[in-house]
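ok trying this again, last paste got cut off
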Amino acid sequence: MFFAFIACDVILLIILIFLAVNFFTTKEKKKAPIIFTHLNEKFNDFVEETNKHIQEKETKIKSKDKKIIKQASKKSKRVYILGFKGGVFADEVEKLRHEITAVLLVARPGVDEILMNIDSPGGSVIGYGLVAAQLDRIKQKNIKLTAMVDRVAASGGYMVAVVADKIVAAPFAYIGSIGVVQEFPNFSKLINKYGVEWKSYTAGESKRDVGTYGKITPDAEKRLNKKLADIHILFKNHIAIYRKSVNVNKIATGECWTAREALALKLVDSLAVSDDIIMEQIKIAHVYNVYTPETKSKLDKILDTVTAQLMSKIKDFVFQINTEKLM
C-alpha cells in the first residue's frame, strides 16, 4: 500500500515536470535583437558608482563606535573576498571572470588585497586552465592574492590555488592530486556481439584517438597516453612556476594529502580556516565580499521544488523499506 502511494506521487511529480517544461518551452520565442554596448562607458560608470559606494560605506563606518570597526577605519587598505566552487567543467569561471574584472577596476595595486575561497576537486584541463589564467590577471596587476581552502583544492583545484601568492588551508582539507586522468566505458565488444558496426570517418590520422563505441587500436591508445603525459608535464611546469620551493617530481604523482601533510611538502603555506583569516583582515582593513547573486527562471524554481519533493518521497520510501526489514 505504501509503495502504491509513493508510486502515484512519483508519477504525479513526473507529469508536473513534463507539463512545466512543455509550458515554458512551447511559448513563442521572440527574435533577440543584436545589442551594441559601449564598454568604455560601461566600465567608467561602474568604476564611478563602485568608488562612490565604497566611500559611502567607509564614511559610515567612521561614525560607528565598535572598536574593531574603528581599527579598520584608520586603514586605507581594502580586501576583496571572491569565491570559486568549481564543477567538472569549471563553468563557474563565467561569473568569476566578471567579478575579477570588477575588482581590478577599483582595486589599488600594491595597497589592496584579494582573498580567494577555493573549493574544487578539479575537472576539465581547459576549464581549470582558464580559471588559473583569470587569477593570474590579479598577479599581473600587482595585487596580493591569498588562496583559502577549507575543504578541497585538488587536481584542477590546486592548479588554480597555486597561482596565489599564499595558500592557507584548513588542517584536514584535501590538497594535491597533481596528475591527469581520462576514463570512459568502451562498448565495442558489446556492439559487435549484437552485429552492430560502428564507423568513424576522419580526415587526419590523429583526429580521433579513442572513443566509446569504436575498437581501440594500439596506435590510438599510444597517442592518447602521450597526450596525457604532455598535459602532465604542463601541469608540473605550472606548479614549478608558482611554487619554486616545491620538489615537483616528488609531489606530481597524482596523490592527495591532507593540508597538514601538504604543509610539510610545501604545497601550502599555513594552516587556518577562512573564517579566521577574514576576521584578522576585518581588524586592519575594509573588507568587501564580492559575489554575483544567483538568478533563477520560473522554470528552474519549479523544477527545483518538484525535484526536492521527489527526492523527499524517495528517501521516505527507502527509509520505510529499511524499517520493515529491521522489523
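PB: full thing came through this time. The longest strand covers residues 78-85.
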